[in-house]
């Protein structure tokens, strides 16, 4: 009963103040408006003298018009909407009030434990507003009927033609194809050499779009070496070899070892210290007194010195002597005659020689043949050398190719049967060396691990303590 | 003399080559990637003729490539993939560092990958080109397939290699194209003739691995990567030529036979099929199942004269080949557990035999050791406890030697516990006058169809050898005689040209041995002919004669050595016998 009374009081109060203020005028436009906050009741509103301002300027409109009341009102509206989901004035009485019939002792439910209590973080995150979120933002943009009709017609037409709208089309799930990895053990092979359909597209287009593979240079198809890919081991390398072929292989291996040993001993010999050149007491003493004892000889050298210099000076002075006396006319004439005669003699000699060659034709011919023979021989030799070069490993980098050790089993290592055979050497290494030998890869040393910073040794504290 | 002065190293060989580092920079690749690319594309370094010129005056040793090759590499789509991969690794590392596991997974899913199919097609425009180069690929695949899966290389690679090598072996078995086998101390050499191409490959013994440290595994893995792709395509094509299904399937009969009871014990489900294929005991399924293989008959054209002879020779060769293909047909082998199963099964199946082994040894055994129809039991131990009467117990070398001899050798030399005859290399082809080991001579005699000589009569054998030698010498003599005759003719022709005025006076009659006279005359003529030779001909002649003599000398030496050895061993044996007595 008291609550109902209070509500009627509020309404009365509202009616009283409505006429007084502008705020109340705004509120009055909202029929049956009930402000939620109590300070809107007008008690807090200051009633002072209105300042008179010119209102013919737009600036003043903003500056001196008091819109607080409107804003407050609107805030209040929003607050009401948030708190109750609508204006309180619109609510029915039943939703606002209830009849208080005294406290009823409710049976407390036994606490189910912590589970029932929601987390605080969840509570914070729960929506506090009772205003429903807008369902359709574009709800107010209603297209006109004409447009809708047209769209519907278009869709109808398309569906008749068999084109479904995008929304209704069966959605293609983009299946990402994993690219084939060349190492995949389950990969599929196909006939790569079958004659496929000939390319019909414009060659220029293919070239420009990089769809056409660039032609491989002819020279790349040549093999860098004539050696076969798999070199079969000598017959002596059989697991149960014939005696002599085994001996032959052993001899070969032995020769290789001997040459290696020779090179080693040669190097050692060259690098050995010559004992004769060791410093003895005598030589060290001599070295120490060098320049101290031989003073007596020096003056002689000095006397010799200047003479030599003088000699040199004289030599310099003897240059081309000056032109001697002029030749007489007679002398000149005679010299000229001699010269001409000599030339004539030479020409005559040549003439005779060439005529004589006519009789030497056969010998000349043989000489020519010989020469040709020689060049031919040289050509053949060069060609054979070139052919031999083709099977040799080339120098392709810093390191030279080093032939692998011959795989050999000594007579006592040979196994009598296949069961007891102990394989010699490694096939992997054999293949690797074969690749190097055929100039497919350059011989290389394994990159060495280089430490960037020096290692620093520190005793651990525990270790120190033990001491 | 106008014109600009020519600058050094701006033309000629200096511009035709490019150093490795420059090439690498041009392609924007790291050295490892560059090396990989070169191997895949078949670009190999070159040694220039004039190194100093190419090296712009420096004499430092560098690796050079042809500039044209490097320019060609610039167009390769894989180069892009390499760069992508580099970025992928960088991103992955970053994601790991930041512990972004989602990111790591996403990156892993989008790992860049590449195919080598187009490179295979580019390097080998026709199938025959590829087949010619398949030796290397096979050796590499067989090698990698024997590797342990211990992380030296990718497990995937090993699996692929195994699959491809099994496919290849199955093809060789079905096409029956194996020709030679050689057991060496290194590994087993096989030679087959596939579509007219002779293909040799090397298979390492099983479990014979020490990993050498001075081998660049990365390089080998790259080669293998390319070779596996190549071999896959080659296999496909080869299977097509035989109308076989690819990937290979066992035929229905084989599949039902090989249903072992405890299959799971041998291999996982995913691997058991490959294991069954690699057992090689069943034949493969064909696209069109044909009850009988059609043997292609050789076309016969009526021809005359020389062609006729050639034709006959060819027909004979073909006949021999067919006979070799069916070498072990109808025989039933059983492999004891100590013999190398895979190689023996492969070889025996290649020549049409039936093979089986102990059930616990490997998957795919088809009959037990108790089978009464077994004809040959291959054993590699000094003695057996339980022996059946109706089968030969032989050592494995018999199979290999028989294949090389193209005939079934007498089994007596290969019985249990018998000292084996030497295993000769089938890859050696002796020329005339070369030293031929007596075992080979014996074998040749056998091939000719002569009666095999008894082992005990060694003296006879030696005599025979001597006879053989004599024959050879005779042949040599014949050749010399022919030469002499030729020279004589030449001499006569020459002497006809310039007849000299010679006075003839009557002489006394001498009674002389006519035959000897003739011979002397001949010798004299020869001597004269040699004297009359031109200097260069003489030089050549001397060289030839010297070479021949040296050869004969060497051969004689070898024979003498062998004789000495045989005698020594004989003496030893006699001593032993005496001791025993």
TrEMBL record, chain A:
Residues 371-383 have a biased composition (Basic residues). It is found in: Nucleus, Nucleolus; Nucleus, Nucleoplasm. Residues 292-349, 371-390 are annotated as: Disordered. One of its GO terms (molecular function) is 5S rRNA binding. GO terms for biological process: ribosomal large subunit assembly; rRNA processing. GO terms for cellular component: nucleolus; nucleoplasm. Its main location: nucleus. Keywords: Nucleus, Ribosome biogenesis. This is Ribosome biogenesis protein NOP53. It comes from Astyanax mexicanus (Blind cave fish).
TrEMBL record, chain B:
Residues 323-416 form the BRCT domain. One of its GO terms (cellular component) is preribosome, large subunit precursor. InterPro entries: BRCT_dom, BRCT_dom_sf, PES. GO terms for molecular function: ribonucleoprotein complex binding; RNA binding. SUPFAM superfamilies: BRCT domain. Residues 572-581 have a biased composition (Basic residues). Residues 453-483 have a biased composition (Acidic residues). SMART domains: BRCT (SM00292). Component of the PeBoW complex, which is required for maturation of 28S and 5.8S ribosomal RNAs and formation of the 60S ribosome. This is Pescadillo homolog. The gene is PES1.
């Amino acid at each position: 009963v008291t609550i109902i009374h209070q509500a009627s009081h509020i309404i009365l109060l509202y009616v009283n103040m409505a006429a007084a203020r502008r705020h109340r005028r705004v509120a009055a436009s909202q029929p049956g408006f009930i402000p939620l906050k109590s300070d809107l009741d007008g008690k807090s509103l200051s009633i002072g003298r209105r300042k008179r301002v010119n209102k013919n300027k737009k600036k003043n409109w903003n500056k001196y018009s008091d819109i607080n009341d409107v804003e407050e009102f609107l805030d209040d509206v929003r607050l009401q909407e948030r708190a109750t989901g609508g204006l309180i004035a619109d609510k029915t009485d039943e939703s606002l009030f209830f009849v208080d019939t005294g406290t009823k002792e409710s049976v407390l439910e036994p606490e189910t434990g912590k589970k029932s209590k929601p987390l605080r973080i969840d509570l914070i995150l729960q929506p506090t507003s009772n205003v429903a979120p807008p369902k359709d933002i574009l709800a107010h943009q209603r297209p006109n009927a004409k447009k809708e009709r047209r769209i519907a017609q278009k869709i109808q037409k398309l569906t008749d033609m068999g084109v479904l709208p995008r929304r209704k089309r069966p959605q293609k799930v983009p299946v990402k194809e994993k690219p084939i990895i060349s190492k995949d053990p389950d990969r599929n092979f196909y006939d790569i050499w079958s004659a496929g359909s000939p390319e019909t597209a414009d060659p220029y287009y293919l070239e420009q779009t990089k769809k056409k593979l660039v032609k491989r240079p002819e020279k790349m198809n040549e093999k860098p070496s004539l050696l076969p890919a798999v070199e079969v081991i000598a017959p002596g390398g059989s697991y149960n070899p014939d005696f002599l072929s085994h001996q032959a292989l052993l001899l070969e291996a032995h020769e290789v070892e001997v040459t290696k040993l020779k090179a080693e001993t040669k190097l050692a010999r060259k690098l050995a210290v010559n004992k004769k050149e060791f410093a003895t007491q005598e030589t060290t003493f001599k070295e120490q007194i060098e320049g101290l004892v031989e003073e007596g000889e020096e003056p002689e050298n000095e006397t010799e010195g200047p003479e030599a210099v003088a000699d040199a000076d004289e030599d310099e002075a003897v240059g081309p002597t000056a032109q001697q006396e002029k030749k007489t006319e007679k002398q000149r004439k005679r010299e000229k005659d001699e010269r001409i005669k000599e030339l004539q003699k030479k020409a005559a000699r040549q003439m005779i020689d060439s005529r004589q060659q006519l009789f030497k034709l056969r010998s000349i011919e043989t000489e020519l043949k010989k020469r040709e023979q020689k060049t031919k021989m040289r050509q053949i030799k060069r060609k054979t050398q070139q052919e031999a070069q083709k099977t040799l490993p080339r120098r392709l980098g810093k390191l030279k190719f080093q032939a692998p050790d011959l795989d050999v089993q000594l007579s006592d290592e040979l196994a009598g049967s296949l069961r007891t055979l102990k394989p010699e050497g490694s096939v992997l290494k054999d293949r690797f060396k074969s690749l190097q030998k055929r100039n497919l890869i350059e011989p290389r040393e394994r990159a060495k691990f280089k430490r960037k910073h020096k290692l620093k040794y520190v005793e651990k504290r525990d270790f120190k303590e033990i001491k | 003399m106008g014109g600009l002065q020519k600058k050094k190293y701006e033309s000629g060989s200096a511009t035709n080559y490019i150093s490795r580092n420059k090439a690498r920079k041009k392609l924007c690749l790291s050295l490892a990637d560059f090396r990989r690319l070169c191997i895949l594309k078949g670009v190999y370094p070159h040694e220039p003729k004039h190194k100093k010129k190419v090296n712009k005056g420096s004499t430092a040793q560098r690796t050079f490539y042809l500039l044209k090759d490097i320019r060609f590499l610039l167009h390769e789509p894989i180069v892009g993939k390499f760069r992508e991969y580099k970025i992928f690794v960088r991103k992955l590392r970053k994601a790991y560092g930041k512990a972004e596991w989602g990111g790591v997974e996403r990156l892993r899913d989008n790992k860049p990958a590449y195919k080598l199919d187009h490179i295979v097609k580019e390097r080998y425009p026709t199938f025959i080109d590829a087949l010619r180069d398949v030796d290397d690929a096979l050796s590499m695949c067989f090698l990698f397939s024997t590797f342990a899966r211990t992380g030296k290389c990718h497990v995937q690679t090993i699996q692929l290699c195994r699959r491809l090598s099994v496919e290849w072996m199955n093809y060789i078995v079905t096409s029956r194209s194996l020709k030679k086998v050689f057991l060496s101390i290194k590994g087993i050499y096989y030679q087959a003739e596939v579509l007219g191409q002779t293909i040799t490959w090397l298979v390492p013994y099983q479990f014979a691995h020490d990993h050498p440290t001075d081998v660049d595994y990365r390089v080998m893995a790259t080669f293998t990567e390319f070779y596996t792709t190549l071999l896959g395509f080659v296999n496909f094509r080869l299977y097509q030529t035989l109308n076989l299904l690819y990937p290979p399937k066992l035929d229905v009969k084989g599949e039902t036979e090989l249903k072992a009871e405890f299959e799971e014990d041998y291999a996982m489900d995913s691997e058991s099929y490959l294991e069954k294929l690699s057992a090689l005991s069943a034949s493969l399924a064909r696209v069109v199942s044909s009850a009988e293989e059609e043997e292609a008959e050789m076309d016969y054209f009526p021809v005359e004269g020389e062609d006729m002879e050639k034709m006959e020779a060819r027909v004979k060769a073909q006949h021999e080949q067919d006979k070799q293909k069916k070498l072990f047909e109808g025989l039933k082998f059983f492999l004891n557990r100590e013999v190398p199963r895979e190689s023996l099964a492969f070889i025996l199946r290649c020549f049409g035999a039936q093979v089986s082994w102990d059930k616990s040894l490997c998957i795919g055994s088809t009959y037990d050791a108790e089978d009464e129809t077994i004809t040959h039991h291959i054993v590699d131990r000094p003695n057996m406890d339980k022996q059946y009467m109706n089968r030969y117990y032989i050592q494995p070398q018999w199979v290999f030697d028989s294949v090389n001899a193209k005939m079934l050798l007498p089994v007596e030399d290969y019985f249990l516990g018998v000292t084996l005859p030497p295993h000769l290399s089938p890859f050696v082809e002796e020329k005339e006058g070369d030293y031929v080991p007596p075992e080979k001579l014996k074998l040749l005699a056998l091939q000719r169809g002569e009666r095999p000589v008894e082992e005990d009569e060694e003296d006879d054998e030696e005599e025979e050898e001597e006879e053989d030698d004599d024959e050879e010498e005779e042949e040599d003599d014949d050749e010399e005689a022919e030469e002499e005759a030729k020279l004589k003719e030449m001499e006569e022709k020459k002497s006809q040209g310039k007849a000299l005025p010679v006075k003839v006076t009557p002489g006394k009659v001498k009674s002389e041995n006519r035959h000897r006279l003739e011979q002397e005359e001949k010798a004299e003529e020869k001597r004269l002919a040699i004297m009359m030779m031109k200097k260069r001909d003489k030089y050549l002649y001397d060289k030839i004669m010297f070479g021949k003599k040296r050869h004969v000398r060497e051969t004689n030496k070898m024979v003498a050595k062998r004789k000495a050895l045989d005698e020594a061993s004989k003496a030893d044996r006699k001593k032993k016998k005496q001791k025993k007595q």
